[in-house]
Every structure is written in C-alpha cells, then in structure tokens.
Amino acid sequence: MKKLNKKSGISFIILVLTIVVALILLASAYGVTSNVMNNGVITNFTEDLLMVQDQATLYYTMNGTIPKYDDTDKETASNVLSMVDTKYRAKLQEEMELNKDTQNDFYKIDLSKLDIDRSSRGFSNSGNVSDVFLLAYPTFNVYYLKGASVGDEIYFSLSTRLTSIARLPNDLKEKIDYVISTKTSHQINVTKNSEDWYNKMNISISTYVDTNETLYMSISDGELKQITPVTQNTTNRYYFDSLEDILNGKTNIKVTNLTQEEVENFGNLEKDKKYIEIVKRQSGVEIARIKINLSGYDNTAPTRISEPLVTSVGENKNISFKIKDDGVGIYKVKYDFLVFQEDGKPTQDYYSNIKSFDIDYLSANGKEANLNNDGVVELQVPKSIKKMAFVLMDHLQNARYFEVQI
C-alpha cells in the first residue's frame, strides 16, 4: 500500500511539471508569434510611409507643386492634432516635435496623382476621413492620420519613436537612411551621404527651374556663386562627391569663381561651419534656400606636428614623432625604407630602382609602426637606415605621405 501511494505521488508531480512546462512553452510561442506579427505591422507601415514620401518628393521635384487634393487647403499642426482621437494626440504631438514639424503646414496627399498602386492606406476607404496621408511642408515628412497600432502603442510617421524599436530588414533600413539624408525645400531636392563620418559627400541636387530662375551655391558663410549650366523650364540634376570634383571639372555642376583656397579651407573648418547652401532666385529675388549639413565630412589626412626624434641604441635607431587628426581619428601609420648605408660604403637604394613609394602601395604593404593613445609614433629600425617613407592614415583611409632623413 505504501508503494502504491509513492507511485501516485510521483505521477502527480510529473503531471504538474508537465503542465508547467507546457504553459511556459505556450507563453513563449505566443510571445514569439506576437512579436513576429507586430514587426510585420511595423515593416508594412514603414514601407508605405517610405513609398509615399519618395513619390510625393519626386512629384514635387518634377512639377513644382505638392500632390494634394485639389479641393483642400493647407492645415496647421494644431488642426491636424484635432483630427485624431484625443487619447492619441500626445503621441502625434511627440512625433511632430521629433520631426521638427510643429510650425509647418500640412497637406492631404492625393495618392491618385502618384505612382502608387499597392498601398492599402491613404485612399479614404469606406469614407474614413482619417485614412489619409499628410505631407509636412517644407520638410516633406509624411504622416498617416489613422496611425498604425502595435500593442498599446500607435505610430504616425518615420520618427525615431518608430525607427528605434523596429527590427527591420537591412534593405529597408538603407531606404530609411536615404530618406533621412534627403532634404527638400521649395522645389530644391537634395540627398547626401547619411553616415556619421564620410570623405565622399555623395550629393545629388534636383530642382525644376522655371523661366527667369537661376541657381547659386555658397560654401559655409561665404558669398553666393552662380551654378551653371542651368536649363529653364525643366528639371536640372547635379551630382558631386567633393568640392575638388567641381573645381577640377569632374562633375556636371560648375560654380562660377570657385577658388582653390575655398576648397582647401573647407576641409579644415570646424564641424558647425561645414555646410553649403543652394539658393534659387527668380528675376533676382530669392525664392528658395536649402542648407546641406556636412559636419561629418572629413577629407583631411592626419598631420605630423613634431620632427622625428632619433636616438641610437646599439645597432638600432629609435624613432619617435607626434601626429594628430582633427576628424574621424588616426587609424594606422605605415612605413618602409628608401636608403641605407653600410659602414665605409656609399649610400644605396634599399630597394633597387625605387626612389619613392606610391601612397596606395605603402598604405597596403608597408610595415606598421606603434601608435600610442596620445598620438606618438614609435619604431625601431637598423642603424644603417638613412631615409624612410611614411604614410599616415585615418579611419576613412585619408592618407598623407612624407619622407624623412634619419
């Protein structure tokens, strides 16, 4: 009888454990399924916002007008807030503030004017007045008035409220980066490099130029210089990676009286001074201006700020000098030998027939020197070495080559 009770007790414990494990698995499965469904909602909503914003911007660039419903006028931010349910207004207000749209005008987008055929949103289906996309001008941020609900949250636009929590595919993240890097103002559409640090501006400018309109560019707070060539009554497009490309005629944009000094000085400006502005005038009167922030642009290589200190140690020489970089930061210092001299013999090329190195070759194949955190370069070489070549590199592969006698 005691044995029977013991078996029954064990069976009951196993049953309880089985139920507990099953409940845990069920809860986990529900959580995974819920996360997948929520992320699917976010992904679809993000794709719709990107599609509408891209097409609306293109329409404006090509036609010079906002693709709004013909029978509607602009709305203020406060009017837009009054269009949504009271319990969601704080969320929409937060996104407007994050997107810097609280003082901008809003227009209801007529999707029939755009090349859009797959959005399930924005067509005022079943007479739902909140089923509409709004475009904020001049930022060109797009909002969906009905919002997308995910759990207890609701989202209206591509603000950081949405992008910071979404687990999006890489290709969708790239599209978002592109949109964030795009600025549109009064018929001037600009895209640029969206990385934190870069040595290629990757700037694209497109704008419809009407009769008697002209375009200008200013570098930092410098004077306006006219952009050429400009074709009126059509969309003009320009592309460039650097101001050097413009100066040297390597791109399709020309800037009148752009100087070598201006181009060289730009790379040494403080971050808040690194910007260019594009201005449009009609019959001499300014009608549009857009500022392109280039604070992350760094095309300047590290520099040496002290002469090499050479000390003899037995059969070797210790060499040290200091370098600095005011941009993205120092990456590596590479070196190799050019000339040596054995006791009682004339100097000779270290490598037969090599008088100097190509900077790309030395960057890839040179020996690496020790670099301290305070920017001091240290290395030890044979005493016979008389001349060396160095290349200083930053994290963007901007490089500076120099040679020294030791």
Compact description:
The chain is of the alpha+beta class. Helices cover 28% and strands 33% of the residues.
What does this structure look like?
- The chain contains eight helices and 23 strands.
- Helices cover 28% and strands 33% of the residues.
- It has a five-stranded antiparallel β-sheet, with no helix packed on it. Strands 14, 15, 16, 20 and 21 form a five-stranded antiparallel β-sheet that branches.
- Strand 12 (275-282) and strand 13 (285-293) form a beta hairpin.
- The chain is flat, with a radius of gyration of 31 Å.
- The protein has helices at 2-63, 77-82, 89-98, 160-163, 170-180, 243-247, 260-266, 359-365, and strands at residues 105-108, 133-137, 142-150, 153-157, 182-185, 188-191, 203-209, 213-219, 225-228, 234-240, 254-255, 275-282, 285-293, 303-304, 309-313, 316-324, 330-340, 348-349, 367-368, 370-371, 376-382, 385-394, 399-405.
- Mean pLDDT is 85; it is low at 30-37.
- The protein is of the alpha+beta class.
- It has three domains: 36-168, no CATH class; 183-293, Immunoglobulin-like (Sandwich); 303-405, Immunoglobulin-like.
Record the SSE blueprint:
Blueprint: H1 2-63, H2 77-82, H3 89-98, E1 105-108, E2 133-137, E3 142-150, E4 153-157, H4 160-163, H5 170-180, E5 182-185, E6 188-191, E7 203-209, E8 213-219, E9 225-228, E10 234-240, H6 243-247, E11 254-255, H7 260-266, E12 275-282, E13 285-293, E14 303-304, E15 309-313, E16 316-324, E17 330-340, E18 348-349, H8 359-365, E19 367-368, E20 370-371, E21 376-382, E22 385-394, E23 399-405
Antiparallel strand pairs: 1-2, 2-3, 3-4, 5-6, 6-7, 7-10, 8-9, 8-12, 9-11, 12-13, 14-16, 15-16, 16-21, 17-18, 17-19, 17-22, 20-21, 22-23
